Amino acid sequence: MASPEAETSPPSTPTTTASCPTPRPLAVVRPTMSPELLRAARAGDERRLVKALLADPAAPDLETAATAGGNTLLHAAAAGGHAELASLLLRRAPGLLAARNAALDTPLHLAARAGAHKVVALLVASSSSSASSPSSSSLRPLTRATNRRGETALHDAVRGAHEAAARALAAADPGLVAVCGGAGDPPLYMAAAAGSLGMVRMLLRSYRDAEDEDEEEVPVSRSFTGPGGRTVLHAAVLVSNEMTKELLQWKPTLLKEVDDTGSTALHYVASVGNISTLKLLLRRDTSPAYVSDSNGSFPVHIAAKMGYGQLIYELCRFCPDCDELLDSRGRNFLHIAIVHKKWKVVWHFCGTAELGRMANVMDSEGNTPLHLAVKNADQMIVSLLMATKGVLPNIVNNQGLTALDLAVLATDKGISYTLNPQVIILRCLAWTGAVLSPRRLDHFIDEFSIGKSSGDELKKFTNIAQNLIVGSVLVSTVTFTAVFTLPGGYISDGHPHAGAPILSHRYTFKAFVMANTLAFVGSTLSTIWLTYAGSEHVHPTLRAVYMFLSVISMEQATRSMVIGFALGAYVVLSPANDRIAIVVCLSTFMTLLLRNPSSWQLGFLIMPIKRRLGWRGAFKTHLPEETRGRLTVGVGSNFARLFLRRMFGTIFTYSFIFLLALL
Question: Ranges of Low complexity compositional bias (predicted)?
């Protein structure tokens, strides 16, 4: 038999290894309230509560009975909103009024959190009746009691949007609205951030009552300042115009208050693009429009950053000199809109006096808006700026570079896609009269390493060849199969021309055969040339030639395959239904328009050329051929030549097909 010492000794600590840490001992909480007593208190059943007390002679008294969380019977009754039971408990055990649970919540905290305004009023009245001189100051030990989070019962009522409970608390102690929580949130700020207009109005009335009582112990001015130095107006402008009006009527000086980042409420409005709130603030006072934040940004810069063109227009209507405001880097709002690629802002001000005044302003680095648009490779904005005659394209920045210089430097000098934004921008500038900076061309080439291909060029050949060869093989396979499955079938045996195509006499059938043949030849040649272009054993110069030929051949094969499908469908369907045949043909030709949406970007060049040079400008050549050859890839001499060259490929292919079909 084991000894008593062995029976009462604690269990030995388990051994641990390096990979298994010692477990932390569990905290044991022993409730002193029986389950029946807790259920009765939560249900608000007075008879059941009395019965549970009488049934357990060993039960603790009312003031000491507590749950595992330290909640007393009054806590449970208050959380459930049971005013009658709470009144009974207060009569039997008045000390429960100041009791706190493990989170340091009083019963008033739980009643406010639950929105039990009757219980809140009861608890406040009980505290007032027990005080020697009933007044708001005598209630402060209860109403201003804070929990572990540093919050009063009013914070809980406001957070839960329990207006009746908050009204009862504020009426008992008006200065309570200025007590900040542990996170620095006063109730008024919390209500505004939550968008509760009724709560804000009620708390403002309490603020005025606190001013009338001339309270000194609690600084009521703190009631409008939240975390991060944000005022209640900072929060209100983001959620409600009506709330903003109420706050401005209460304290107009809030309009000039800044948070820890130096931002006024107008900065916040500019960040969300609320035009109605912007007008409301500016009608009160326009001075915040001229206040910059800690980064040197004015509200108009914030609006430009977010892309709110209409809001900027309204801001300029109230403050006509907003276009003159510069941030810490010397940039106006047009610079900012371009840096953040907000083309709608630029479009909104095209043709306006504001754009004319800002278009050629240089920032601290000497960059105009056009310089920044070129750096960001935004062809839409470059097109909009170049379509404005007041924009000067030949201004040099602090590096001595013009916009065209930057466009040249941004263009890939090796293998590149000729419809990339950088190339479109280069064409837009070169074809509208922009010039390079005045320096020796050889020095320009050497200084910026122009024309020197990187070591990745050979990898580009291999990757492009691998991608294109899949398409070329697919076209070859389809067109090869089409020869043995001709539309309309073959003449049956017994006929002098047995085995011949039935529809061979029709012109559309002949055109189909020629289109299929041209597609097969083009795709086959493209496959062969791509094999050479992707081979590492072929000299890079020859690989570039093979790559160029394969791309042209593949384009021709694709066009031929598309028209071949249309002709084949027409041959089969037209005898039965001409309308369906025509619809199929037209639908097929849509692939020619949609196969390369990047081609539509050439439309960005039309308006700048027309505005600056007229329609004849499309035929003018500005950059000498020697310069184009050394500095650019795929630019071309002028817009008309590029357009006609792209059209020629399509026209040649279809002309070849339909002319040969006449044989």
Answer: 1-21
